[in-house]
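[09:14] KT: can someone run the structure on this one? pasting the chain below
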Amino acid sequence: MCLRSVAGRPGRCRPEVASRPGRGPLAGRLDWLHLHELRHAFATFLLDQGEELRTVMELLGHSTIRMTADTYGHVLPARARQAASAIDRILGQEGTA
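[09:31] RB: done, structure tokens below
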């Protein structure tokens, strides 16, 4: 398993973590947590909070923005609705001023 640092640079790779599940200081306490699910949640939460698709792509290490959009695109319609509501509020305020 290879993790990225906070700055986005490749971090320390530890193949033994992926090849020997159930060992280590958290063994048994996080059996319900799988790294892929955590990665998916991380990306989904970032997009839901308004982070740019390009930033999420870079953090995940995807080679193309299309890969990120195809995988996490389900979050984007909610963001589009929020943006449309924001425009509605702005236009509504302009009409009353």
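[09:33] KT: thanks! The chain has a mean pLDDT of 76.
[09:34] RB: yep, looked fine to me
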